[in-house]
Amino acid sequence: MKKVLFAVGEAAPFIKVGGLGDVAGALPEALCNKGVDCRVILPLYGQIPDEMRRNMTYITHIYIHNAWREQYCGIFSCKIKNTTYYFVDNEYYFKRYGVYGECDDAERFAFFSRAVLEVLPVIDFLPDILHCNDWHTALIPVLLDSEFRWRDGYGGIKTVFTIHNIEFQGKFDPYILGNVFGMSEDKKPLLFYGDCLNLMKGAIECANAVTTVSESYAGEILNPYFS
Fold it and tell me: d(Cα 140, Cα 194) in Å, to the nearest integer?
């Protein structure tokens, strides 16, 4: 059975900001119904309703090293119909009023991206395909290729990166490459685009396949006006 882990910044019915949440709530279930073992991983945001939290099971916790930081990472899970969902818990990063648009978004989602890769042995699920979505998870293919490939079970993982909204690309000051992303200077070319670090560019460089939400959108973003 093909194993797919869908890494995403939001997923209905738990938390939804836009169309990304709708896709993350529907596509994994559709794949499960076709016989794929597709699971979803997302942050455990403070805005997720208490009635949904009551259905979650605590698995364990680990600590994530990101640059000079060491941060708690709790792991919870629940199942809706045929789909298993995992939640990365860290109240410092995710117990916020908003989902996106925080001044430390680079650090928050760098933590989440590392957490996705670090928790795979803990949840006992090494996927054939890691499906990443938009800039919030764009660092995952970069980290996988540059830091995690040597680990047992990681060598054969393929990555898919899907662009849902190219307007938001994860653009940040180059200074944070080491200080926030915990990456060495020789990895800068993977992320550097224009005059900044661009996480979406990094995912396009490193992912085994790049997709969009529709054929028409794929055509649109080939035009510089839209992209």
Answer: 21
Q: In what order do the strands lie in the sheet with 196-198?
A: 171-172, 196-198, 192-193
Inter-residue contact 138 to 203 (CB < 8 Å): yes
Count CB-CB contacts under 10 A for residue 51: 7
pLDDT in tens, 111-163: 999 999 999 999 999 999 999 999 999 999 999 999 999 999 999 999 999 99
Give the HSE-up count for residue 122: Cα atoms under 13 Å, Cβ half-sphere: 20
Q: How far is CA 164 from CA 9, 29, 168, in A?
A: 12, 18, 9
Q: Note the pLDDT tens digit of each residue in 180-216.
A: 999 999 999 999 999 999 999 999 999 999 999 999 9
Tokens for 141? 């293919």
pTM above 0.85, yes or no: yes
Separation of alpha carbons 164 and 162, rounded Å: 6
Give ∠ CA 15-21-23 in degrees, rounded to 5: 150
First to last CA, the chain: 36
**DSSP at 224:** T
Compute the mean pLDDT over every residue in the chain, rounded to the nearest whole number: 95
C-alpha closest to that of 27 among 39, 16, 18: 39
Measured CA to CA, the distance from residue 9 to residue 11 in angstroms comes to 7
